Queue: 2 jobs
Job 1
Amino acid sequence: MRTIESSSGTATPDTLPPPSMAVWQHSHVLDLDDFTREEIELVFEIADAMAEVLTREVKKVPTLRGKTVVTLFYEPSTRTRASFELAAKNLSADTVSIDASKSSVVKGESLIDSLRTIQALGADIIVMRHSQSGAPYLAIQEVNSSIINAGDGWHAHPSQALLDLYTIRRHLGKTANLKIAIIGDIMHSRVARSNIWGMTTMGAKVVLCSPSTLLPRGLNSFIENCRLANVSIENNIERALENADVVMLLRLQMERQQSGLLPSLREYIQRYQVTTERLSLAKSNVLVMHPGPINEGIEISPEVAHGTQSVIEEQVSNGVAIRMALLYLIAGGKNK
Amino acid sequence: MAATLLISGGRILDPGQGIDKVADLLIAKGKITWIGDKGTAPNHSDLKTIDATGLVVCPGFIDLHCHLREPGFEDKETISTGTKAAAKGGFTTVCCMPNTNPPIDSQASIDYVKKVAEAEGIVQVLPIGCITKARQGKELTEMNELAEAGVIGFSDDGNPVASSRIMSLAMDYSQSLGLPIIDHCEDKELSDGGFMNDGWVSARLGLKGMPKAAEEIVVARDISLAQMTGARLHIAHVSTEGSVELVRRAKEKGMAVTAEVTPHHLTLTEERVMGGQLKKNKQLTYDTNAKVNPPLRTKEDITALIQGLKDGTIDAIATDHAPHTLVDKMCEFGLAAFGISGLETAFACLMSLVQDGRLDLKTIISKLTFEPARIIGTRFGELGSLKPGCRADVTIFDPNKEWVVDKSDFASKGKNTPFHGCHFKGKVRITIAAGQVVYKSE
Amino acid sequence: MLVLKPLASSRQEVFLMSERTLMSAEDIQRALVRVAHEIVEKNKGARDLVLVGMQTRGVPLASRLAATIQGLEGISIPVGSLDISLYRDDLSSLSLKPTVHRTDVPVDVTDKQIVLVDDVFYTGRSIRAAMDALMDLGRPQSIQLAVLVDRGHRELPIRADYVGKNIPTSKNEEIKVDIKEVDGEDRVIIVTSDKGASHEND
């Protein structure tokens, strides 16, 4: 496989041959820790094609006709679930959505039994979100359907990280050598973890900025043991934002203050909120991103959230194209 | 009716007596009667001979810490199946923890356990009584009554005794009885619902971690209280470098502090949870078979634990055998029960340390025989010894036998083991309890 | 020209591949010019004509046809590209196919005369998928098909309106079309694979 990056380090889609489908190695999409750079580029290529479909008046293609995609969500979600369902419907798949809070789970059914039932009903692809880290890894051992992880506990959210990288690429043309600051509650963030994997694979420099109580104690050791290049940790937001190409905010859950991890929201806002003034430390064409939902006035000021640098809404639209690409790859790539 | 048994030609290894030689051993009427040179045993009619050529013959292993789950959790294990598992593992005495349902906090429950053990157990079962009523950490149990009913010590295992005040009262009270307080050392506020060691693996897997300090804080507290009260303190399942150091210093001061370590803490690290994998681009797992409390720690901790065994800081090896049903373990990592079903893999695990040159065989056998016997005391006879006159508890093993762990072969109901499929070298061949052969392998 | 290329094989058989050139660059050019004339003739001019090339090699062929037609009629013909990956009926064999490219048709197809352009016409399944794709983009007035090479073996009742060259083939033969914009040169070759008699490799 030809290397994607040219000697100057700026690879653009037009100058490269598109990766061939033979690079795709996955029957499931659980996290980005085992995605090669070529696989990520492949997802982007296909997402580009899917994005074109989304500009049509009839946003439908028959690719997944006859396939059944089941979304199984143990945690509430608006955007991710709707995004996957729309993606599946746009590909003409049949979709079923299961809200675990209202299902037999309430009657005590275990995760494995729920998955087996769904498989027996004919699910080809299961998109699952669960509050326990590792739940999808249990799922792939127990059922034959393909699993796409829509978020497991604090651990991973691969489709979010892919759409984040895709959004960055659409604006800045590349990810290599960019300085990307991820600011917020890193400890509890599956978005941060998956982005760490994806961004380092694509050659970016990642700065994690967080109050110390919201950083996992083993984080430095994790970075070292997994040989993640170019990841640094910063407690000071001004240093994190300096000359950043991308600023990604993470939502601060209110419960963190209640469980004693922070003295007050006020202090968090004082030290870590990204305001217009703080944002001016970054590059002038900086991208402001957020996986949503936003706590306006907490991690991000309303001016920045709705400002010219914000691509937060575009992330959502890109999410549908990326998820269509993942469904396409998973549905097709099974017979390896 | 126990037969007269002659165990012939094996390497008799009894570190408590300083014996390590090829010899014959005679058992009659449930007791060891004679050890001597091959072929010189006194004559007996009705003699059965066991040929132990090439095998090692040592006192039956003693497990200071295991969970037999009966009464109350018979789906996980019963005294019958648990003792069968013990026999397979070479254990002839097991001390069962009181976190049953009802908990073993009264004479009635001890009598129940003793009765079932007598009727259905195939090895000796010695109960441990609760420190506090129902293990709630609030009121002391009637320790005197429990002592007279036959407990070897007191523990709320599964739970720490959270209140320092209650622990100091428990130590004061038990001190007069001469029985040890066995503490599961964990500051639950600090470990705060964590699932594994707080380190790089928990950071990577997105799992809440249990810091080493949560164990060390309570070890330090208990040692301080033991010093104040003069009580006997036994630290259950030590897992960290820091804990080993604290126990070492306490012993240097001459305190009556003892400690135990499990085979899994001596051989597995936190990486086992991930499937033992380090690099990117390999399939990850969240293996609930590696979920245990205290959690598997790091290489540095293993080194310190092994050193602790070598220099006498750690007195005994105990399995903390914790069987669970499939349902309890085959679920999301955060929801899975803590525990490893360890009786049947303990010995082979320890042998792997011998084969790697990290520990010698004599140390291992010591920590499984006369040293735990010392902690139990002599109320139940002299245990952990092949001295003539002692109960005939004998374990015969083949140090070179290669085998593969198959959990479906376990006598224990608990198939929750991280060693399934492991290739081991060293296997128990015959276990004799009170003169009866209670286990014999093919 | 007959080119013998012995191939090594793990078994003790040797597969011989032979290649023959069927159309040179000049042959291709002449065929395209003729097809362009036929398109104009059949459609009585170039009004409302849209050429849509099938990814990948149909796209430069469509561009060339459009250039020729522009030379004849003096009007500029819109050219689009169509990727049918999302319309295939063989999703599970994706791993062997190249990736999804963009579909890019710069005008509304409704009420237009669409001419699909492809390099090789074989079973007809790609063209069926292409028609579905075009229908999703709008309501063309008509769809016609121009192909450089028709190698026969139709599996569906679809025919080409314009054919550069008819090349009857058997199933163990393969038609390879090289187009300068994609492959660096223009030519059409036929590749035959024969199992040779067993003999040792070196």
Note: DSSP finds 13 helices and nine strands in chain A.
Job 2
Amino acid sequence: MSDYAWLIPALPAVSAALIVFFGKRLPKGGAEVGIAAIGLAFLLSVGVAVQVFSANVAAVAQVPHAEEEARAGTEVAGLGAPGGLLAAAAEPEEETIEIPAGVSAFVRERSVQLTPFGGQYGFEAGIRVDGLAAMMFLLVCFVSLLVQIYSTSYMQGDPRYTWYFALLSMFTASMLLLVIGNNLMLVLMGWELVGICSYLLIGFWWEEKANSDAAIKAFLTTHLGDVGLMVGVITMWSLFATFNIGEIIAAVQAGTQAGGAALDTGLLTFGLIALFIGAIGKSAQFPLHTWLPDAMAGPTPVSALIHAATMVTAGIFLVARLYPVFSASATAMAVVAVIGTITLFMAGLLAVVQDDVKRVLAYSTISQLGYMIAALAFSYTAGIFHLFTHGFFKALLFLGAGSLIHAVHSNNMSDMGGLRKFMPWTFWTFLVGSLALAAIPPLAGFWSKDEVLAGGLEAGGYTGWLLVVLGSLGGMITAFYMTRVMWLVFAGEFRGHGHPHESPAAMKWPLAVLAVPAAVMGFFNLPFGTLHSRGFAAWTLFDLEYFTNHEAHFFLPMALGTTLLAGVGIVVGTKLYRQVPEREPMLELGPVSGVLVNKFYLDRLSTDLIVRTLVRTKLANAAYWLNDHVLDRTVFLLGVGTAKLGRGTYTYADQRGIDGTVNGLAGGAGFLGREVFRKFQSGNVQLYAGGMFAGVFLLAVLFATAT
Amino acid sequence: MAAVYPLIFAALLFCVGVYGVLSRRNAVLVLMSVEIMLASVTINLVTFGEIAKARGDVLLTGQVFALFVLAVGAAEVGVGLALVLLLYRNRASVNIDEADLMKY
């Protein structure tokens, strides 16, 4: 099955082309092509996932120590881990586990060498199918399928309906290319392609200037990070002389760089941090997160697909993809941890003051992405497991928000209220998503967020404790703002205009389908010994050594503590918003509100200070002067010079030189014929005969002298 | 060798014929000069025939050829005189300088 994995990105790519060329002539405007292609791709990805996951479980079963660890883990959990928090934190580092020869995690690579410029400059294009890629296929295809079905109803009647579905297919293909690529160049290509699709979809309703501004902002901000990504990729090349991810990982694990020399850890750290700057841009981490809330200008299903479940996780995917490489640099990992932790806490606070329901979810996404990034610093499984569960429940919440917006024709919660009785489907599914996001057991978010915090706690150190403290507080804030949304939207009286109604079936059913994984996905990765080594953690590994040396832990006191904090958040939220308050309490906090409403002045920093003061006055003028006096002048002079040269060529070379030669030859021939050779044709027979005799005489003399 | 005298004679006769062809204005005289050239060539043939006979040629090839040339020359004169006659009929003159219709 994994041999056909290349079809997974190829199918949506083909459908994108088909929709662009033939979509308008089809009865459903191209939507059916996109849905069919992504449906097939989803079936394929299920097949790939089954093969990869079962191979990985079989591989884990052959590592003897993992089994023993597993049993020990069960006992610890069974005892309720008395004092587990301190005991575990104080535990000495585990010994390195030997892996039996011949046992390895499932990785399948197929590639072709493209040498368009001759053998010396080859470019490798290939696929790498492993646990991580299989997991991403599942997530991307599943969410994309549901979003496309949902969109058939949400985008009904839009003038650019066909183009919208072409873009969705194109985006899905790009994201899958990013996931499947086996070398950094392909990843970079996919990365840029999803960026351009995101840009086009955010600005989908470009008739309003705010939307196209948001698209430009998203594009430029993420590209600021992409510069870092490119620097990182180039650094990796200079270190390892290859873009192939598998080869880079192998080289790092062997501690060598290109040519067999010892690894230059300083340069490696630089390269990794540069790569991580790319992840900061794409995954909306502090301080480049400002584009994501503005990106909500796009259609809501797009926000669900791109700005919640898939594209924004590209940064997390990149770090996970190069996880063994990142592990080799403690400095890079510390940067990852600190950035992630700052982001998760700061974005959570910002979500509290928003009125636009999509913006609440956007800040919540940034916050959850922060959890994933921070988790990756300590535990691969925790990071991508949170990515996986979050993909489902955040897509659910966004689609739910789309359903609300569809009903009340406004993004603002002040125009909603009392929608529970009008929209029961939306209410119940939204509730499931909110509880999962707020990490209430036993929903998916609880298990993944707990694993994140457990990873930080086990690692300890200042970064680990920072994650535990801010992460737990962040959990409380999450619970608080989701409670706020629930009360403001669904309770009380309807405050908007018109009569809200439940959404049509094409929108209801995707919500219901997404609610299932949002509720139960956590049970695939219970942090208890044997189950853990059979479940998600084993499925998605691509490096046995790492996995066997990072056992999952479950600290009951911490789990209880975070649940308690989430409960506090819910209670406070209920107290404040049960009766819809006259004035928004979050805006009555004095200077704190000001800071939050102004987003910690980060937008001010970038727009006012940097853009207005620096760029618009100084840099822009300098650039203008440079453009006017240097570039334009050069171009102008070049143009004039070229024109003169052309004219000169015309007059001298063409008219006089070439034409003159031709005319001269013709004229000369004419003159000779007219004035000279004509005389010979006298008509006088005797003259001709004389000529003939002279010729014969001449020939006779010649022959005589020759012999 | 005695054969050189007839050959020199033939060459001189040929030169007389060439001079006549190139210098006479009268077409009849030109025709006669051509005949003189033909006669000089016939003398050549007879001379070479004698040389060949001295070397063992029993068929008298040169002499026989001379007879042929005389016969063909008679026919040629017939054609030539007919041309001159037509020229005269058309132009009332046999001056070949005036017969230059084929000039440029």
Note: The radius of gyration of chain B is 17 Å.
